[in-house]
Task: structure prediction
Amino acid sequence: MPINIFTTIDDPLGTEGSNAAGINGSGQIVGAYQVSGLIHGFVFSGGSFTTVDDPSGTLGNEAFGINASGQIVGEYKDASGFHGYFLSGNVFVTIDDPSATSDNAAFGINGSGQIVGGFQGRQRLAWFRP
Result:
């Protein structure tokens, strides 16, 4: 019978909750935590949490996927709605489908840097290579 090991992942800053959304082969985990009503993305790597926020300091951010290179994808919110994003090192790129009317998100990224996401109303497969 297989042995299952469960580990609780709680960002210590997430006083109003946290959730894990993605993991890569190295065990790096991305997700989001909430404090004072605002959602922040995080990456958990090597036993440490690092906040992942978009540089404009908007109305919230979530990290949904991470690949083996540590590149992260997710969504952030500003006054005009939700936007997908790609983060590689210190380079933060907004990803919005040009045919979308609102609410974009990037959900996953593979080892080649291809990104899958969606926008309000229907899922759409898309790719973006920086």
About this structure: DSSP finds no helices and eleven strands in the chain.
